[in-house]
Amino acid sequence: MAKWALIYNPVAGGFNTAKLESIQAALRNLGIEAVLLPTRQPGHATEIARAVEGVERVAVFGGDGTLNEAAGGLLGRGMPLVFLPGGSGNSMARELGLPKDPAAAARALAGPHTLSFRPGKVDGRHFLLMAGFGFDGLAIHLISKNMKNRLGPLGYILTGFRCLVHRHPSMWVETPEGKRRGLWVVAARGQHYAGILKIHPTAGLTRPGLGLTAVNGWMLLPFGIGRLLFRLPVRGPGLVLEEHPSFRITSQTPVHVHLDGDYFKAATSFEVGIAEQELLLSVPGKI
Fold first, then answer.
1. Confidence at residue 40, expressed as pLDDT on a 0 to 100 scale
2. Are the beta carbons of 249 and 58 closer than 8 angstroms?
3. How many CB atoms lie within 10 A of CB 277?
4. What is the pLDDT of residues 218-230, one digit of tens each?
5. With contact defined as beta carbons under 8 Å apart, do 9 and 63 qualify?
6. pTM of the prediction?
7. For residue 274, what is the enclosing H or E element?
8. Which domains does the chain have, with CATH numbers?
């Protein structure tokens, strides 16, 4: 019988015991034994994934944050990482076209298809889909765990709109083509953001560069409502949508940053690029 390590976050927004048991049953029906490995504190999934041996794949039942942590322990190892959505946003599930039900996702990902890609990085710390600077970093800093678990992506959106009334530090984004200004900057390795939204029209896991979204001044509200919520083709001088392999972000005062929906830090300077090591990700088919 094949064997998978199954890392799960018992405090993730979508976790419950019945879902975990349904995943185990689905894998058993496919001839796969799941070795259960619960996380106990932030960062634990990285330790588990780094130490795991004797399995064909490492599956994560949790949210994008737990997936990010597990990826940190598998970078460069060549062992496939499997995402079984069980969090608040589950942006990676939407990026890969996975079913919402984690047992159905397990069945879809049990095939041979894998995708090798290099995650993004901020100051040496990796991210799989997105790094948000300023506006949404503050939202992640402020959102309560209770709101994340109860409302899922809607909780992020509501907290984000609350952050619109805050005074946000202006940032400079230095790219090979010059400087860009923004009150909100997102580095995107994929299109999906906060589960239900699309942050960049061309970003992708295997693209040679990162999707750069920089929103400035008056454009913040029309971009947030028009482009993100209703997917209208909002354009203007206060909006930058580009792709670059790396760029530098600076600000006179500290800005908050999140990576894949988990708070990272506040600082005045960031180096953003693509990681040197590759990650192998199980996918439902060739994407």
1. 92
2. no
3. 12
4. 777 777 766 666 6
5. yes
6. 0.89
7. strand 262-274
8. 2-111 (3.40.50.10330), 123-274 (2.60.200.40)
